[in-house]
Amino acid sequence: MPVEFSTLSADRKGKAPSEQMSMRQSFGLSLAVNTRAAGLSMGGQQRVTTEILQRLGPVESIAPSRSLAGIKGHAWEQFVLPWRARGKFLWSPSATGPLAVRRQILTLHDVAFLDIPEFFAPKFVRFYSTLMPRLVRRVAKVVTVSEFSRKRIAATLGIEADQIEVISNGVCEQFHLYEPEDIAAVRAALDLPQRYFVLQATSDRRKNLPKVLQAWNDLQGELPEDLWLVVAGNLAREHVFGSLGSLSAGPRTRILGFVDEQYFAPLIAAAEGFLFPSLYEGFGIPILEAMGCGTPVLTSAATATQEVAGDAALLVDPASLRSIAEGIRELATDAD
Asked: 199-208 burial, b if ≥16 CB within 10 A, otherwise e?
């Protein structure tokens, strides 16, 4: 390996794309990026990959000719990608990569599939539990996004913590304060109530959707009568996370499902509060996104979310229905 990744990362900060390319050439790096997962529906890992690619300067992006998920995607990654990446240094940004490529940086956001396997589909757990211990030992460097994830990767996959580089996530430029006319436009487009909290949740059971819905329903007599709960997120990824089962959406609740990118940031900016009481996160980018929009945040005093939020959010115990309910009540009734 021509240069330690940590050194390259530090030296490249603030450089223009042409300078970045010159530096890579000086170090003998011809960089390719494994973008198979970036072609799937937008989530945290896809967002990170897309944003970093915009800032890396000219690199070769390698992806299948059409979107491939599940076993077909993994087969392409193990057998086709090594051939296409030959002679280059590979970055795999989405927690999987080819075992055949040693000149590779692997970004592993968390090891939830090992820490809480009951929250994932059994086939998903079996595959990753087989692949990851071998992959982290073969690649040149493992990168993760928080101190929490670094410690859990080291503990569960059996590599030394000093072999893992922590590079924290940032927040996209579209998450900012919005003008009243932008807020009005997204209200009309999504048929939103005037006052609402937004809960970002998916079919991933870590997001704690059933418990938040229950807490919201239990609080109905204690909240302002015109305050709604709006749920945004992709609820159709059972092949990864298993089934959520039936959901009981109570009074003053709107479940939007997946929200298009053009509406997502204004949806958060228009909310009076952002709920993210996740049971497990390797980082928690939505915390930063909501803060960027100027929206007060309720999140978990657990895993990496407390590390990311610091003292700038209202923290609750995500395993406690009572703690979540008390947090929602405080967010709704305490202007400070």
From this structure: bbbbbbbbbb
